[in-house]
Amino acid sequence: MVTIREMMQASLAVKQALLADEVVQTGMERAVAMMTGALRAGGRVLFCGNGGSAADAQHFAAELSGKFLLDRRALDAEALHVNTSFLTAYANDFSYDQVYARLVQAKGRKGDVLIGISTSGNSKNIVLAFEEAHRIGMQTIGMTGAGGGAMAAVSDVLLAMPSKETPPFAPSIISSRWCRK
Question: Could you tell me if 164 and 152 are in contact, meaning their C-beta atoms sit under 8 angstroms apart?
Answer without folding.
Answer: no
